[in-house]
């Protein structure tokens, strides 16, 4: 039996203390599409996604994150991962029945040694949009004619914070074979951030050192848009709706241009992300940044907030 | 009394044989805002316009154009123009009462010697959008959060066709003091097109020679959008809705980038126009193009249709 | 004789303590075109400008501004302005011979009552670029094939600071017939900024209250670029060259999107400006902002510096 | 030993009858970077590429294509492919020493059963640009400050023509495990085009049926740019230089926006390509187009030429 393999970041299951308020942010303001409601959970996807959901919202006592979902390359990878995680890593693995999470096949859930709640799954339905929303282009999900103009296109990455970020990233590499695309070291040699990928094609998780040493959590989920113009359009839409933003600009790491916006109810943050680069090179060597290489981690602009939601 | 003066192209009063079908094009597909209905006429404006309307639609036996409206610089210019047109040009001038055309003050109407139906007016109301559509930016009319994403911004120019286009353009210059911004001559020295402006800041009317020698008519009304990306977005929206387009590209004359789309019911054509240039230079000399200066009148791309609507 | 009239902002004559260092910023980094050197002054224009220059650089003991140049609508306006300024305003007016400033006809210079150094002129040569740089498009000056990719297109406005900004703006309106396009009042009713225009089509001078009560000066000259993408490209180019930037974002007033950059030698600041709106409406009423209308004067992003160069 | 695997399209080795004329197109007009000259071959890469080359030019008796290069996932894949191709497919495989093609490790070359000249390689040097051209961003190759503004970013795909395109595509799938991302069938059920990928993430080869039944050949190499605006900028640059273009628009298949341009000397065509979509989904099912699904294979605009270069 060959090694199990992850194919990509798939979705994030979010919790909020006020489902309607959070839906007003995710659907009305940001432009996610509602695909299904089941057992009090609302499943959403971005307009360029075929899969059933890339984010879900469930009402809970406080805002949190139930799990970050990763899709495996093959169906049999689930079994292999479950065994490996239990045997070699000594972790508790829970099996989730097909369709317990709507649209999804069987899955396993576990907490990483650093406390990040992960889910692995392979099967995911690809429901058609309602007929009047379906694009005439067969390779496109939703027509944009009646869609929120600034709607993000597809999930790109998550940023997670950890008081032991280097250890967390190391475990992702060693146990789960995540590839490092870039990393950033402080002047004293300590690692501030490691930018890793399940498939090696693009950064899918930024693992950031939490200097405040809080419990681990999620800083944001990033979705791709098409251009820098889209970031200004998104800022405009957020301002018109009175939804908070946390800065516009461009990261040096990843070269992604950004606009951050935030659900005031839950604190969950969405990054609109444009540009960046892809890796198809099988011999890619991680990009090594040292503090002082550049004046600032942002190539232009500022991120105005470091709050994040604990799991 | 000083010479009367025109300030700008203001609006076009269109006729259609099927009002609902044409509204489906102008409002649902293109993204004009309905401001008012009065006496069977629907008054529309673009999302970046403060004035009451820049296009109106009236049901009639056949598609046509009731008038092309030009705003005068001063209120007293109406009286002066009326006298000049009757006395010096021997034209019939009709006075229109305030609010006969909704939102508009008193106006005069006349047919140019070449048969183009013109209206001059000065006063135009600037109604606020409905509260939920009003932008928070005081210098912007509509918030774009609930607006058709590809909605054009503001009226730019009209293109009119005439079997004696050079004579028509000459009269606009001599009688009405239009300024010539560019012109294009064929190899045999005959003039194909003259691109004129009431205010001298931008092309407001393209006067094109009709080689088929048909009665005069309107080829299109052009509205500004923000970028070349917007043209592709507009093409996408038209295709998704099954609305015909007539080409994407860039004109050499005016340097405007274009996407043409057309109301299948009436044949009225809207150009989405991006880029181009402005003239603030008081000493501007007309740009003189000769056939052969460039391979094609388009810098890139093609216009696929020369149909136009007779007045 | 009719009232003299201004047609537009034309150019700014800058001084720098190190001409070569400042040229490295203006020409190599920002992408201005050098048109001519005469008597130690280097005359520059933007790539979409036909006129001889829109900015000039002269070496002097310290960085400063010799004058802000405004073009009159007619040649005879110079004489009329000179007489009016001397007789009615009691100002000293100096005549400048044709070609004393390269490429320019006769001009008058004076200091406004608040100490802003103004020049009025009418004639300006329109030299062709070198043949290998001339665009094939007759309505375009420079081909962009060998031009700095981020080169700004054409002069848009100046921002001037004054310890009595309201008085300064009032004089511009009353003596010189500047039109107010927008203004911004503080909670206590005092005016923070007045945004005025010579031609009434676009903001050409922002007159800002200097809370530090320093002598009057120039905060920046703004040049138009084509899109928000261009702002990110300009930021990228500045960072690659180690040239300082002062923020990216969008103003609420004027709706202009901005990137600020600065000549480290002289402190002269250039704004790359995209978007905004134009006024062709003869009945435009000034947009009145009150502190508190919006959280911030910026719609998104920040300006990071308030330094400016004294005249 | 596991199955050998291809990682991606890597480069195309082109031949031209006039090297200098073709370099004027590839380097001066399009903006490729010259990396090295060796044995009469000039090695070029795009500004966002780290690898030694993605296209090379060699002078030959006539324009042609020496090979299309694909990079293997692992070094040992070369040996495995060589054995498989000889034993199972009965093809002649030629080994190429390291550095015979500059910057490249050992490689194998063979002609597919349909006559397409392929090369497989694994090692490729990643030379730094000259210091003054190196970006300050460690994850970027060239600073764009002195680069041709319209320079394409990175290789995307090739389009190859074949009188038996369906058979050619089938062999790529069966022998080399290419994945089908989209395909297009005519009304009579015959296949017009198959759009395949070595890595499954994006279309890397379009295999098009040649109705003229000519020997197989290369229609174009496509390179990514960042936005639709870039396509208009590229069209502008080509026109200013007198370099031919073959249309601007958007494909329905792949959703890629395009501008085609062509080396008049050799006939080799470069597509500037913006937009499109990526596949990270392990369960992707090919998109099946039928003639009649859409009016035209282009969503907007036209491709004006079907000429292509025989190998």
From TrEMBL, chains A, B, C, D:
Enzyme class, spelled out: oxidoreductase
Record-level Gene Ontology MF annotations: catechol 2,3-dioxygenase activity; metal ion binding
Family matches, as InterPro entries: Glyas_Bleomycin-R_OHBP_Dase (IPR029068), Glyas_Fos-R_dOase_dom (IPR004360), GlyoxalaseI/FosfomycinResist (IPR050383), VOC_core (IPR037523), XylE-like_N (IPR054560)
Stored PROSITE patterns: VOC
Enzyme nomenclature, EC number: 1.13.11.2
Keywords: Aromatic hydrocarbons catabolism, Dioxygenase, Metal-binding, Oxidoreductase, Repeat
Domain VOC: 8-123, 154-275
Segments traversing the membrane: none
Gene3D superfamilies: 2,3-Dihydroxybiphenyl 1,2-Dioxygenase, domain 1
UniProt record similarity statement: Belongs to the extradiol ring-cleavage dioxygenase family.
Subunit structure: Homotetramer.
Protein name (Swiss-Prot/TrEMBL): Catechol 2,3-dioxygenase
Protein source organism: Halarchaeum rubridurum
């Amino acid at each position: 039996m060959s090694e199990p393999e992850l194919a990509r970041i798939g979705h994030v299951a979010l919790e909020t203390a006020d489902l309607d308020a959070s839906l007003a942010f995710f659907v009305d303001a940001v432009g996610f599409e509602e695909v299904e409601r089941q057992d009090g959970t609302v499943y959403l996807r971005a307009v360029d996604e075929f899969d059933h959901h890339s984010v879900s919202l469930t009402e809970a006592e406080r805002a949190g994150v139930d799990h970050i979902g990763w899709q495996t390359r093959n169906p049999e990878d689930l079994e292999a991962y479950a065994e490996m995680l239990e045997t070699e890593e000594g972790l508790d693995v829970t099996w989730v029945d097909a369709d317990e999470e709507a649209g999804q096949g069987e899955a396993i859930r576990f907490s990483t040694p650093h406390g990040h709640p992960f889910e692995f799954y392979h099967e995911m339905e690809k429901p058609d949009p309602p007929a009047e929303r379906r694009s005439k282009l067969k390779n496109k999900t939703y027509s944009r004619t009646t869609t929120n103009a600034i709607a993000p296109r597809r999930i790109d990455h998550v940023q997670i914070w950890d008081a032991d970020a280097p250890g967390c990233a190391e475990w992702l590499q060693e146990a789960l074979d995540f590839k490092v695309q870039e990393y950033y070291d402080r002047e004293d040699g300590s690692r501030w951030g490691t930018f890793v990928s399940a498939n090696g094609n693009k950064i899918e998780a930024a693992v950031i050192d939490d200097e405040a040493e809080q419990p681990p959590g999620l800083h944001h989920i990033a979705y791709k848009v098409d251009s820098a113009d889209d970031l200004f359009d998104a800022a405009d839409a957020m301002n018109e709706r009175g939804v908070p933003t946390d800065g516009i600009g461009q990261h040096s790491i990843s070269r992604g241009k950004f606009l951050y916006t935030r659900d005031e109810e839950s604190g969950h943050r969405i990054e609109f992300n444009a540009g960046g680069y892809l890796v198809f090179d099988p011999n890619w060597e991680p990009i090594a940044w040292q503090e002082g290489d550049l004046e600032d981690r942002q190539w232009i602009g500022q991120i105005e907030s470091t709050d994040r939601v604990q799991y």
